[in-house]
Each structure stands twice: as structure tokens, then as C-alpha cells.
Amino acid sequence: MDVFQAINERRSIRKYRTDPIPDEYLQTILEAARRAPSWHNTQCWRLVIVRDPDTKKLLSEALKGGPSEANNPASDAIQRAPVVIVACALKGRSGYLRKGEMGGIPATDKGEWWFMFDVALAMQNVSLAAHALGLGTVHIGLFDSSKVADILGIPDNVAVVEMMPMGWPDEKPQPRRRKEISQF
After folding, report:
1. What is the spatial distance between Cα 28 and Cα 85, in angstroms, rounded to a whole number?
2. Which residue, among 156, 182, 6, 163, has the nearest Cα to 79 in the 3D structure?
3. Which of 39, 98, 124, 132 is a good FRET partner for 11, with 20 to 30 A between their CA atoms?
């Protein structure tokens, strides 16, 4: 699949079949993340692969509003998808000028938050690579990141950024309206 086809056809998938993802597919997708650009090539992202049903249930409970919220399809997506990728970032790496050790002086007015760009670039590569292999994904950001960090044992020097369920789609969403180029 060509990159423009993947960009045009990719949809946010919230309903998944429970069939497993072959390890070679997951490795291909992780290679796509590895190839993403980053600040000074720091590659600050760290991806936690979650397959355990009990852990996925706990992750769904970290969603804002909780898993019982009537219209929260992310809860079911996290629990049913065979894989959930929890995207994290090493703090103090991205967005800083190099002064011996990594970290130090923020290089932009974004300060330490530049890691959000780097993680987003890696996760967009993940999303497009997954789509090219026939898998679906959805970006989830409305959750209690400290609760997710506790569930997964994430150390304090690492920020939890997003969760991404990934699996075989059990829905085919229609394209959503996009703004005209002149509007942005």
C-alpha cells in the first residue's frame, strides 16, 4: 500500500475482533515507529506492548469517566483489541540543547513538552503501518496518566503520553468530513 493510500484510507477503529496479531506484524509496526523522526535523533519514545487481558481491563479503568461511562467506546476498544500500545517518553531528552549529558537548557518555548511531538510522530507511523497491514488503531489521550503509570510500573523519569488499541477491525467507519486546505 502506498503512503498516500494509507493516509487517505486510515480510520480510527474502536471495535476490534479478538484474533491475535502475528509477531512479525508487530515487529514491522515497531520498526515503523523506530524510523520516525525526533529532536536531535533522541528517539525518546518508549512503547509498552500490553496483551494481558487483566492489565487491559485495568487500563480501561484509567479512562477519564471510567469504563462504565455510557458513550466511552475507548473502554471496549482497550479491552477487546489484542494489543494496546502505551506510548511513553523519556523526560529531559527531547527539546533540549545538548550540554554534555542529555537535558539541560530548553531550546524552544515548548520546554520539555517537545517529547509530545516526537511521540506523536512515532505513533502516526505506527498507525499508518498498522493500517497498511490491515489492522486498525485509535489514538486515546483522555485518561489518568499517573494511574496508567502505576498499573504498568512506569518510572518517574518517563511520561505516559497515549494509549493505542490495535487489532483487526470489526467495523468500517465512513470517512469524516475534512476541512478545505484554504481553512488551515
Report:
1. 14
2. 163
3. 39
- Measured CA to CA in angstroms, residue 6 lies from 34, 43, 168 at distances of 18, 24, 16
The span from the CA of 90 to the CA of 122, in Å, is 14
The grid coordinates of residue 159 equal 511520561
Band of pLDDT at residue 107, cut at 50, 70 and 90 = confident
Which residues are CB-neighbours of 127 under 8 A, at least 6 positions away? Answer: 10, 137, 139, 164
Q: What are phi and psi of 26, to 5 degrees?
A: -60, -40
Q: Amino acid identity, residue 67?
A: P
Which cell goes with 19? 484474533
3-state SS class at 2: coil
Q: How many residues does the chain have?
A: 184
Q: Position 71: which residue type?
A: N
pLDDT class of 62 with cuts at 50, 70, 90: very high
